[in-house]
Amino acid sequence: MFRIGIGSDTHRLVADRPLILGGVLIESDHGAEGHSDGDALTHALADALLGALCEADLGAHFPDSDEQWKDADSLQLLARVVWLAHERGFQVGNVDATIMLERPKLRDHIDAMRDNLARTLDVDVACVSVKAKTGEGLDAVGRSEAVSAQAIVLLAANKT
Ligand code: MG
Hints:
Layout: E1 2-14, E2 19-21, E3 24-26, E4 31-32, H1 40-52, H2 58-61, H3 74-87, E5 90-100, H4 110-121, E6 128-133, H5 139-142, E7 146-157
Parallel strand pairs: 5-6
Antiparallel strand pairs: 1-4, 1-7, 2-3, 5-7
Helix pairs in contact: 1-3, 3-4
Bound molecules: magnesium ion.
Magnesium ion (MG) binds at residues 9, 11, 34, 40, 43.
């Protein structure tokens, strides 16, 4: 049996915050505002997994009112969601994601993101696609006011 899920996330970009995407710290003069580390890519992916499991969303599992998750490493949050999927008898099949960020260019960081995510998702890196787009100077992404990400995931039930 297969299940699919979709997720998206947006964070406001501000000065004096780290820019972390897929667990990779990227040199930048702005970073993502957020209760956790603001990793929009990892949040979108975790939401996609939760969606495939019909398990609500990241905010329901890790509320931003809880000090436990302040500045949390989002890969650790994703690992907990992967654990939940395994508990329910599912393995990740493949994932595909798109980051929307005006600057800096992400091309040189994509493979490191894929490695981090593959390790956390417990899949081969060939099953993890990460793409990057800009906002072409339009909308909040284009004005460098926001970073967004979208993700889709396929889960496959363990053979019994
Ligand atoms: Mg988020």
